[in-house]
Amino acid sequence: MIRSLFLLCLMVVGACENPAAPDVAVREILTPPPSRKIVAASSVAELSQSADVVSSAAYDVNASGDIAGFMVNRGGRIRGFTWGSSGTLTTLNPLPGHFHSYAFSVNAAGRVVGVSQNSAGKSVATIWANGTPASLGTLVPGGESFGMAVNALGSAAGSATIADGSMRAFYHSAVTRRMTNVGVLPGGSYTLGHDLNDMGQMVGYGDTPQGDRAFLYDWSTGSLMDLGTIPGGVSSYALSVNASTQVAGFAFTAEGLPHAFLWHAGSMTDLGTLGGPQSVAFGINDSGEVVGYSQVPSGEFHAFVWTAESGMVDLGTLRGGSVSYAQQINFTGLTAGIALGPDGRERAVRWSVTLQ
Question: Does the predicted TM-score (pTM) go above 0.70?
């Protein structure tokens, strides 16, 4: 349920709080830094885990090289984890009374945001500090919530149900400890929040009468902006945002095919593919390097890294596997993601990309 709700891409304005300093960082980066060239990329490496783990996935990597994700053991129990740059694996237990945990984002201080899920499948957004879980709450009593991102200040973003059962993107302030419903785009009925930068800008997607659209929400002003779509496109989905307000995601072309995009300052650029018909961008770092996956001419899906200087480069797959997805890249080029092993099961993996 968690994966199908928030990773739609693998298958193919409400009341706002007044900002309370220092909930958002000062906007010091106004323009993206110069593009870097991709010099080399290491072979994909599986994150070391116990023999009891049957599948795993990595979703985020912070500036220190800590990776967040989740793993499934032989008994079917799911646990969020962080994998340190030294190779140390830390298991994240769910909230009391809950059965599963999922980790989707980790900040530089090691705070992790994700989900705790009970035995009935009901979910609540969760933040872990020093390994201890705490609920981020819900938008309505008895509702569900799903945490997807945490920024350097400890504020979080994700989605939650409202009284009629529909979804709304939320912003959770580290200062007020309140969850704000960011509302919907004009004419829309739902929004999903996916990523958050240190300036309190959130990206995600929601529906409009013209089709699904990527959005940019700014907590300091309460504005919710439709980012449009690629030229000739019919829908768009924003999945990651950096400190320069560059946004990465994917949009469907007029032919109905998903293509990775990079949006900045009102312009959305189609990043192309690795030779196949499809691509999706999942993550972007503060230098504007983008990662995701693309179909290759053989029909398989491979992880990629893209820069304006080098274009899109194939990161490859695990030995004996045929599919890989890159989820996020940090400034040093460490990239976290997922790859299928020879047995067809998902594995949390990493690549090291050399940039200059």
Answer: yes
